[in-house]
Specification:
The chain has 26 helices and 31 strands. By secondary structure, the protein is α+β, with helices and mostly antiparallel strands. The strands form 9 sheets. A 5-stranded mixed β-barrel has the order 20-27-28-29-31. Strands 11-6-12-15-16 form a 5-stranded mixed beta sheet, sandwiched between helices. A 4-stranded mixed beta sheet has the order 3-4-7-10. 39% of the residues are buried.
């Protein structure tokens, strides 16, 4: 493809300001592209004509503040809720206010309040007066009040704050009815420029608040959860005194709570299990999975409290309960929800950092942003939050992280590149972000994020689905969003996330990323509206998919009574443990086109690829037809040539996505000993045997000698619960495939026969791409190319990363002599 070689981008150091600006210049997205715009709309309609303009000049921004007027009748909870909104005030450290952190909630559930606009900074028109009787009163002209709609969640929060006024003043004497900052009311939501500006200073707003109150509602799960949390801290403090560090309790201290008998919390007497069940329901509150509130709670964590009408619970208490709950999960896997990892790790580290700083400097509080901020790489922050957290507007999945990112601090040049801009479409924001990650990191790890995203729907899929059967939200229409660009929603099939975290994988990382500029190619002229759709990367083709088992592995928790697990276990302790908890995770196989579950697990999959008597396999290729599994893999004269035990070892390694085992028992070794493999780790061997025996208790399917080893591990050794095979098998949610040269692998369910496997320079992993020419319907009539129609032969859809057994390290290139091969250019669209 010499005539199609592209011009490389100008060399520059990743992370430079110039390079970041170039990244943004190459991915301008036409405004008329529809990319799920419906989910980005604010659906609360209000009259913002009385809002006076805020300053949006960088460094001179100001804010509005809100007062909730007291009730006239304290016994009437349904009394009209009247709030007073200030004119813009200069944002300085002298302002005293409470910042409210909450979830907007269901946009369809709206309530009405009365809103009055007022100038607080004028001395002759003060909002607070002190009558002679000493009772505080509020004097403000309410004749100008207007009806304003808010979500039910905010309405209930404001009512609670109004009702708890006296209690808050008693707990926090400095707060003599001080104002609030609430995003839905203090920001003109109809003014995109103002929203962009206020989002850009959000961290500063919460950092400079005197207090931050978290509102999670006041349903039974919240109130009981806080009751247990306060009781837990009290019990630990009474038991260990000064040895109990609320920010860093030891596992031994928490373990004593979990191993003790019952506890009296008010009217309840609960054992550790009952307490943890209450905490599980508390942690399942939707608040903990909203991306903006993670920033809001971490800006000022030492002065952040969970608010309910009668109490305010310090955020640090929540982290003690989170540690206790996580320890419980480690000891006794229950599968119940817990806090996303970012909550425990980020907030605990933040609080420890602040405490160390205060002890060192003898200060009670510091507003130094660089001292009290936890900064990280933007890509890493996004990777750890985008599947665990939700946002009403998908663009906020990125915008909420900018203040945490090292690259967006002063002098790095990226703040302007990635600054919040709600005029940009979701596709434009995340296409730019994907390309930005490649340029600033110098690697292709960001492409691994597509492993956890929604499945791609290609033009040919729409022809099959039909106009009356549109894809669900867990699918992504590549006609409007490039297949290589991150899409910031969950619901992906690759439930275990990217494989790029595996330190032993480094397929092409020793070769620098080769990113080419197709728009400046001397021979090819792309239509302007297509330039944003294509990214050109250098690499090599290393395989081709022959067949795919469209049967993703899934992990389920079931009750295993009357199964082989009722047999005698290896130790008395294990026997007792298995009697008390009969629910165990098991592996099953499901077909992507069937809604029902197909039981069988990994033994069924193994029988299909290794036994001639297994059901026939339908091969989706040009010739069609069926092949029996014995002819398909392990056939005489093939790569394994009937070596069942070696094939079984590779099969299990592939399911585990494990590093390659090398040594004398390689495929070419003629020794008759049992090959090395996952069962060389005794804990892993037990876990594999346990999972295998659930569906094949007599171990009829694996090779005889290995079957004996697995049975021995199962019934002669204890089973450590944290080592259960389903929890370690990162192949969950992926599909099994075999290449034309009989190598095994795991891929996304989108992959099919004929797709090719490539190693892109700068990537740790191989990727699967699909030649666009293979599609039954090629993108539409508007795709035309001037200068070279052959470009269509080098256009590919990005189908995601994959695991290819024994080809995941850089040594593969050296061993196969592939480093000397001429680089190919893959144009991904």
């Amino acid at each position: 493809m010499d005539e199609l070689l592209l011009e490389p981008q100008a060399e520059s150091q990743p992370g430079s300001e110039e390079l970041g600006q170039k990244a943004m210049q190459t991915t301008k997205i036409p405004a008329d592209i529809e990319d799920g715009a419906e989910i980005t709309k604010r659906r609360i309609t209000n009259d913002y004509s009385s809002y006076k303009a805020l300053s949006t000049e960088p460094g001179k921004e100001n804010i509005r503040l809100l007062h909730v007027l007291p009730q006239k009748n304290v016994d009437d909870d349904d009394e009209e809720l009247v709030c007073v909104l200030s004119d813009p005030i200069a944002k300085t450290g002298r302002i005293v206010y409470i910042a409210l952190s909450y979830c907007w909630g269901d946009m369809a559930r709206q309530r009405s309040i009365s809103l009055v606009h007022h100038s607080f900074d004028q001395p002759d028109d003060s909002i607070v007066q002190e009558p002679e009787d000493g009772v505080q009163a509020v004097a403000v002209n309410v004749t100008t009040k207007k009806t304003f709609n808010v979500t039910d969640s905010l309405y209930q929060a404001l009512k609670s704050l109004r009702k708890s006024k006296a209690q808050i003043e008693e707990s926090f004497p400095l707060f003599d009815y001080q104002p609030l900052w609430v995003d839905a009311l203090c920001i003109n939501q109809s003014d995109i420029e103002e929203r962009n500006s206020q989002v850009g200073i959000m961290r500063s707003i919460y950092s400079q608040a005197m207090l931050v109150f978290i509102w999670m509602g006041e349903d039974e799960d919240v109130v009981r959860g806080l009751h247990i949390i306060v009781g837990l801290v009290r019990v630990m403090s009474e038991r260990y005194g000064d040895e109990f560090d609320i920010l860093n309790p030891t596992d031994e201290q928490l373990g004593t709570f979990l191993s003790s008998g019952g506890y009296n919390f008010g009217d309840e007497n609960l054992g550790p299990g009952g307490c943890l069940q209450v905490l599980g329901r508390f942690f399942n509150n939707p608040y903990f999975r909203r991306i903006w509130v993670l920033q809001e709670a971490s800006c000022n964590p030492q002065l952040t409290f969970i608010h309910i009408t009668n109490a305010q619970v310090p955020l640090s208490y929540i982290l003690v309960a989170e540690r206790c709950y996580k320890l419980w999960e480690t000891l006794y896997f229950t599968g119940k929800p817990t806090l996303p990892v970012a909550w425990g790790s980020m907030l605990r580290k933040q609080l420890l950092h602040i405490r160390d700083f205060q002890q060192k400097n003898g200060e009670k509080r510091s507003h130094n942003k660089k001292t009290c901020s936890l900064l990280g790489r933007l890509y890493n922050l996004f990777e750890h939050t985008y599947t665990d957290f939700e946002a009403t507007d998908p663009r906020d999945k990125l915008y909420a992280l900018l203040d945490f990112a090292l690259e967006t601090q002063n002098g790095m040049g990226s703040r302007q590149d990635l600054a919040p801009d709600y005029n940009k479409t979701v596709t434009e924001v995340f296409s730019n972000f994907t390309l930005w990650c490649i340029r600033y990191s110098g690697n292709l790890d960001v492409l691994g994020l597509l492993a956890s995203g929604p499945r791609r729907v290609l033009p040919e899929d729409f022809a099959r689905l039909g106009a009356h059967d549109p894809p669900t939200q867990s699918y992504l229409d590549v006609r409007s969003h490039p297949s290589w660009a991150v899409w910031p929603t969950g619901g992906g099939i690759w439930t275990q996330g990217s494989l790029a975290k595996e330190p032993n994988f480094g397929l092409a990382t020793q070769r620098e990323v080769r990113l080419f500029q197709l728009a400046t190619h001397p021979m090819i002229r792309l239509p302007e509206d297509l330039t944003h759709r294509i990214i050109s990367l250098g690499g090599l083709q290393i395989g081709k998919v022959k067949s795919v088992f469209q049967m993703p592995l899934k992990c389920m928790q079931t009750t295993v009574e009357n199964s082989f697990l009722s047999k005698k276990w290896g130790t008395e302790a294990l026997e007792k443990d298995m009697e008390t908890d009969r629910a165990m995770p098991v592996m099953i196989l499901t077909h992507p086109y069937n809604r029902g579950l197909f039981r069988g697990g990994i033994p069924l999959l193994w029988s299909m690829i290794s036994k001639s008597e297994s059901p026939p396999i339908i091969i989706d290729d040009e010739e069609g037809g069926t092949l029996s599994s014995q002819e398909w893999l392990g056939r005489q004269g093939g790569r394994y040539n009937g070596k069942d035990e070696l094939m079984f070892r590779d099969f299990l390694e592939t399911l585990l996505l494990s590093p390659v085992y090398r040594g004398e028992n390689s495929l070419d070794h003629q020794d008759d000993t049992v090959p090395d493999g996952p069962w060389s780790d005794k804990d892993m061997a037990t876990s594999i045997a346990m999972c295998w025996g659930e569906n094949d208790p007599r171990f009829m399917f694996p090779p005889p000698r290995i079957a004996g080893i697995l049975k021995g591990e199962l019934f002669e050794r204890p089973v450590p619960q944290p080592k259960l095979f389903p929890l370690q098998c990162r192949g969950v949610g992926k599909c099994f495939f075999i290449t034309e040269d009989e190598r095994m692998g795991m891929c996304s369910p989108d992959v099919r026969s004929g797709d090719i496997i490539i190693a892109l320079f700068g990537s740790r992993l191989p990727f699967v791409v699909r030649p666009v020419r293979q599609e039954t319907k090629f993108e539409g009539d508007d795709w035309s190319f001037k200068g070279s129609e052959e470009l269509k032969d080098h256009l590919y859809r990005f189908m995601g990363e994959c695991y290819l057994h024994e080809q995941m390290t850089s040594s593969f290139f050296r061993d196969q002599g592939m480093e000397s091969r001429q680089m190919e250019v893959f144009n991904l669209c």
